[in-house]
Specification:
DUF6316, DUF6316 domain-containing protein, three-stranded antiparallel beta sheet, flat
Length: about 70
């Protein structure tokens, strides 16, 4: 996928990969920040938590941007 995300300084190629993986019957998801979140009992749980993780990160960014120094 070639394009430019809002936070990227220049256009580039971005490859999509599967974010959910299974290890020993437990499910994890990987983040852009390079962390592995989990474990979760089912793939559905892990996929649901991806949405929650994104909301938390967006909320944290908004709080950080609203701080006045």
């Amino acid at each position: 996928m070639f394009g430019q995300r809002r936070v990227d300084p220049t256009p580039g190629t971005h490859y999509r990969s599967e974010r959910v993986s299974a290890v020993n019957g437990q499910y994890f998801f990987s983040t852009r920040e390079g962390t592995l979140e989990g474990p979760y009992f089912t793939r559905v749980d892990a996929e649901r938590e991806i949405g929650s993780y994104i909301r938390r990160m967006m909320q944290a960014n908004q709080l950080a941007a609203s701080r006045v120094y």
